Amino acid sequence: MMPITLPGKFPGSSVYLFGPYTYHKDKRCKIPSYRCTYHKTHHKCPVVIKKENNNYVEKSRHNHPKPPNIEEKKKLHRMIDDGSIETNLSAKEIFNELRQSAEKSQMRPSAVKVRVSKKRIANLPVEPQYFYELKNSISTYKKTSCLFRGIIEAEDGSTAIMLCQEELMKHIGEVKEILIQQTYEVLFKIKFLKLLALLINFIFSFIC
């Protein structure tokens, strides 16, 4: 039985597949030796496979269930990544959507939460240095593009980016009054005169 080499968890690392079980290569040994990947878990699996006379011999027996199928786990990771980027669902909601696959792959909610968080941080747009970069980031970044309504240019040459939910835009022509509230003076590393919030009074209620 020859080992199948697969990409490891970290760049440049590898895991080795013997049957349904995965192993790490023990680089301390001169004779090719492979330890079960559950060796450093609470199971402390004692199984070691050594190469003897061109044969791979398994020492001891596994004391834990078979690990999840690697291809199915990769597929689950892709689905979690897609959910992180394509939706606004929380990590808990993504886990609930994929609960059956996650449990089959022995992936806990905490692990899903960490993966979702890392993926979303990695997918954030680069912090803009100039106003046009901010506009491009907002209009193309999936989480904010749905709010982008365009650029407003005033007679004095000043420019504003308009952000608003599509549903609220439908009621703009019906509002009774619009209140303007100014907030932060600095956003990112770009200095703005003001960041304005418009409060729309529509049928005795405020829509922000």
Q: What would you report as the Rg, rounded to the nearest angstrom?
A: 27 Å
The helix fraction, in percent, is: 25-40%
Q: Low-confidence parts lasting 5 or more residues at pLDDT below 50?
A: 203-208
Q: What is the strand tally?
A: 13
SSE sequence, one letter per element: EEEEEEHHHHHHEEHEEEEE
Indicate the overall shape.
Answer: elongated
Broad structural category = alpha+beta
> Largest sheet, order of strands side by side?
1-2-3-4-5-6
Query: How far apart, in Å, are the first and last alpha carbons?
Result: 65 Å
| Fraction of residues in β-strands | 25-35%
Largest sheet: 6 strands, antiparallel
**What is the averaged pLDDT score?**
81
Number of helices: 7
Concise account of the structure shown:
This is FLYWCH-type domain-containing protein. The strands form four sheets. This protein has a six-stranded antiparallel sheet with strand order 1-2-3-4-5-6, with no helix packed on it. Strands 9-12-13 form a three-stranded antiparallel sheet, with no helix packed on it. The protein is 30% helix and 27% strand.
Folded structure, characterized:
With 208 residues, the chain is of the alpha+beta class. It has helices spanning 70-86, 91-97, 99-104, 109-122, 131-140, 142-145, 166-169; strands at residues 4-7, 14-18, 21-25, 33-36, 48-52, 55-59, 148-153, 159-163, 177-182, 186-187, 190-191, 196-201, 206-207. A hairpin with a 6-residue loop joins strand 1 (4-7) and strand 2. Helix 2 (91-97) packs across helix 4 (109-122). The longest helix has 17 residues, at 70-86. It is elongated and about 85 Å long. The model is unreliable at 203-208 (pLDDT under 50). It has a six-stranded antiparallel β-sheet with strand order 1-2-3-4-5-6, with no helix packed on it. Strands 9-12-13 form a three-stranded antiparallel β-sheet, with no helix packed on it. The chain has a two-stranded antiparallel sheet with strand order 7-8. It starts with a strand and ends with a strand.
